[in-house]
Amino acid sequence: MANLTLSLSTFLTFFVLFSTSPSLAAKCNSGDLKALMSIKQSLGNPKILSSWNPSTDCCTWSRIQCNRAGRVMSISIRDTNVPMTIPSSISDLTALISVSFIDLPGLTGPIPASLFKLTTLKVIAIIRTSVSSIAGPISDSIAKLSQLDTLDLSSNELTGPIPSSLNKLPKLRFLDMSHNHLTGSIPPGLVKGRLSILILSHNLLTGQIPKEYGSGDLEIINASHNQLTGDLSFLFSANKVTDIDLAWNRFAFDMSNVVFSKKLTDLDLSHNSITGRVPSSIRDLAEVRKMDLSYNQLCGEIPSGGITTNLGAVSFAHNKCLCGAPLSPCHKP
Predict the structure, then answer these.
(1) Strands (E), the chain
(2) Whole-model pTM above 0.70?
(3) Are the C-beta atoms of 161 and 181 separated by less than 8 Å?
(4) Beta strands 159-160 and 181-182: pairing type?
(5) 31-49, pLDDT tens digit by residue?
(6) Cα–Cα distance for residue pair 242/195, rounded to 1 Å
(7) Residues near 11 by Cβ (< 8 Å), separated by ≥ 6?
């Protein structure tokens, strides 16, 4: 579901930003032209940028989108093996709204601090590269990205903690830092703004999820495949949360009296150390499409009726002593 949401969010964002008529657009800004040629040179003049010819209007080049004033609003470089770092000259594109570096395994080094000087940015997507860090202290500069809506840094080689300065982005709605090597705890404060989608799976994160994440506008949280601990009860009753994937962690708490939000559609808590009984509130989850409580320490009879009639044995398998449909019948004394 998270991938679907990303695709939809990206489509809508780009549709709104770039639905301009080429016939009404001005020619490329000379400063932007100079910056683009510097970027091309820094990337080693790859074949995918062969259309970047300074004798032509840069607003007609591939991987570039301009607004009607002839300013570059979007740059998207993807699907090639560029053995370079992200050019710092990208900060010279002062009207940039969206920047994407995707499927570039040869792209290494840090994300340049100069990128965070572009206060007009709404979308940053650096995905499936070998980028390994965020350069320098960014706590002050990243706070200037007051328009940033989407930050996707998934599937890179990022290390270290999640920057706590991300809580200074008032319009951030989508944050994906999954499939990296991030350590430390999940910082508080990220849900103070408009954050609705948080994806931190497949990292090395430890500690507890801050209780404030049970409030705010958070709808989707995926922090599976980490080393997180603690009690998650506060998260399940959050009114807006619909999709929770916290599988393959070290959560240990008694689930017996948990009250689930009726808006839940997807719930995966498998491969943890959750104890107690399956709560009766599970029967009221009419919107659930997927539920997985397997590989925990749950015990007792599974509540009958409601959504449980549609769940297979795999949803409850490999627990301590669960019984009842869809598992084997309970042995009455």
Answers:
(1) 64-66, 72-78, 98-104, 110-111, 123-129, 133-134, 150-152, 159-160, 174-176, 181-182, 197-199, 206-207, 220-222, 227-228, 243-245, 266-268, 290-292, 299-301, 321-323
(2) yes
(3) no
(4) parallel
(5) 999 999 999 999 999 999 9
(6) 14
(7) none
